[in-house]
UniProtKB/TrEMBL annotation:
<feature type="domain" description="DeoR-like transcriptional repressor C-terminal sensor">
    <location>
        <begin position="1"/>
        <end position="58"/>
    </location>
</feature>
<dbReference type="InterPro" id="IPR014036">
    <property type="entry name" value="DeoR-like_C"/>
</dbReference>
<dbReference type="Pfam" id="PF00455">
    <property type="entry name" value="DeoRC"/>
</dbReference>
<protein>
    <submittedName>
        <fullName>DeoR family transcriptional regulator</fullName>
    </submittedName>
</protein>
<dbReference type="InterPro" id="IPR037171">
    <property type="entry name" value="NagB/RpiA_transferase-like"/>
</dbReference>
Length: 86
């Protein structure tokens, strides 16, 4: 999850599959743990405007939180009552 690029992957096949799933669904949810924040993969899956909600275990860094908010997506911290955005 990179603040300037969005959601990325290292595997081309996985990234293409994820793009297809996101494009076909009525609602897209990204689930990731905090270790993925600030890391770039080799292949872009989607920008922050390409999904509706990101669920994670810890609050992301400010630049990622800002990018999620600017895209109008919701941020949910699993295991808490904390949700930010739409």
């Amino acid at each position: 999850v990179d603040a300037s690029t969005g959601i990325m992957d290292y595997d081309l096949d996985e990234a293409e599959f994820a793009r297809m799933v996101v494009s076909r669904g009525m609602r897209a949810l990204v689930a990731t743990d905090h270790s993925k924040f600030g890391r770039q993969g080799l292949v872009k899956v989607c920008s922050f405007s390409g999904f509706h909600e990101l669920v994670t275990d810890r609050m992301p860094p400010r630049d990622i939180t800002a990018a999620i908010g600017e895209a109008g997506a919701r941020l949910t911290i699993a295991g808490s009552q904390q949700a930010v955005g739409n």
